[in-house]
């Protein structure tokens, strides 16, 4: 699972959802039982995993030949609780989490080419 960018993306998507759950549970401990340390610890963990998810999404954007729309959906899915797993399942069903066999131009290289043509 960890040998491909697809595996790393799936791992961080699931980890991001688990860290959301941990943060929500920590909020119950803070506001329900008076333990603010729970949110301090889980907030830090969730922030770290959230950042990893965003970075991995940006990294796999090129190799997986995602369109810019799919990248935006992946990034937006990092905000609501558990949406990263919903996006990951959607991307699996749609075939977006598959390494392409053809190595044609990426949307990023097409954008760079268009900008160079304007210059």
Description:
There is one protein chain. With about 120 residues, the protein is mostly helical. It has one domain (about 5-119). The protein contains 5 helices and no strands. Helix 1 packs antiparallel against helix 2 (about 35-60) and helix 1 (about 5-35) packs antiparallel against helix 4. The longest helix has 29 residues, at about 5-35. It is elongated. The mean pLDDT is about 90. One of its GO terms (cellular component) is plasma membrane. This is Integral membrane protein. It holds the Pfam family DUF3817. It is a multi-pass membrane protein. It comes from Actinopolyspora biskrensis.
The biggest sheet amounts to: none
Spatial extent as radius of gyration: 17 Å
Low-confidence stretches: none
**What share of the residues does DSSP label as strand, in percent?**
under 5%
**Number of separate strands:** 0
Roughly how much helix do the residues carry, as a percent range? over 70%
Please, how many helices?
Answer: 5
Number of domains: 1
What is the end-to-end distance? 42 Å
Distinctive features:
single chain, 119 residues, mainly alpha, cell membrane
What is this structure, in a nutshell?
With 119 residues, this protein is an all-alpha fold. It contains five helices and no strands.
